[in-house]
Amino acid sequence: MKRLITLLIIIPLFGMSQTNYELSFNSATLDYVEMPNTSSVIANKTAFSISCWVNPQSNTNHGGIMGFRNNSDADFYLLQMQNTTTIEARFRNSSGANYDILATNILDLGQWQHLAFTYDGSYIRLYKNGVIVNSIAANGTITQSNQSFKLGSLDWQGSGFYLIGKIDEARLWDVALSQTEIQNWMCSEIDASHPNYSNLMGYWNLNEGIGVSTDDQTTNGNNGTILGGTVWQTSSSCLAVVVLCGDVNEDGVVDQTDVTDINNYITGVIVPVFNLWAADVNCDGVINVLDITLLNSF
């Protein structure tokens, strides 16, 4: 059985025609990516979504994942709190009111997870792996910031809070994505078929693999500058190997057949599971009932 499983895992990898990449950040070398002019595309809006795949490697003295932070205008971000696996998702509106979600012990160290933070003019919501963690009432507009949009670091009173970990597929929207939209696209690269493609304000897929810049895939052209000792690595997130999250039999549709295949695999029934990477729906490195639960919510 072990030999069969190994073969099934290797086949999708050999079938890839393009190498995907990720960025690895280390607080010791003050690593981050900076997109200086991004605030202008989100200013005066009353909705946003930010999301990425993140693999935190350890606890740190606060670890900035993504967003704007300057304790004033255009302030919204995802932050790993000091020496914990707790996430702060915060939005500060144009009137200076702060709205915070603190998700205690939500991060899994050494594992990939998808985080999404949305605001629709009435609520902010935090999602992990496509499942809502919490929501609170919020209101107000976003004003233009003098701070850059960043990956891997967030500023506080002139100092940087640096992530120890990896990031892939960073996205910024001027609309609040629904849970279904997050789930349907978190394991796929964005293209024009996305229902909110016109609302995509920034998209850094981090696939260059070399150099000190990363291109914004939207027409806004807010390319990122890679600073410190940030390192390119071959991607190990879902995007590297999964065309469609949960599509175990690779027929282009996520349906009950895929749920049955995963269940049969877990219970030891020998079935033709073609893509075990797709079966690991939550990308935690283990195929179990948690993947079935998440797949059933799609």
Structure description:
The protein is an alpha+beta fold. It has two domains: 74 residues, Orthogonal Bundle (Type 1 dockerin domain); 214 residues, Jelly Rolls (Sandwich). It is built from six helices and 18 strands. Strands 1, 3, 8, 9, 10, 14, 15 and 18 form an eight-stranded antiparallel sheet that branches. It has an eight-stranded antiparallel sheet with strand order 7-6-5-4-11-2-17-16, with no helix packed on it. The protein has a two-stranded antiparallel ribbon with strand order 12-13. Helix 4 packs antiparallel against helix 6. It is globular, with a radius of gyration of 19 Å. The N terminus is likely disordered.
Molecular shape: globular
Order of helices and strands: HEEEEEEEEEEEEEEHEEEEHHHH
Class inferred from helices and paired strands: alpha+beta
Overall average residue pLDDT: 84
**Sheet with most strands:** 8 strands, antiparallel
In total, the number of domains comes to: 2
The percentage helix is 10-25%
CATH class categorisation of the largest domain = Mainly Beta
Mind telling me which CATH architecture of the largest domain this is?
A: Sandwich
Q: What is the strand tally?
A: 18
How far do the termini sit from each other?
30 Å
CATH topology label of the largest domain: Jelly Rolls
Instruction: Determine Rg (CA atoms, Å).
Output: 19 Å
Strand content: 25-35%
Q: Helical stretch count?
A: 6
Enumerate the spans where pLDDT stays under 50 for 5 or more consecutive residues.
Answer: 1-17
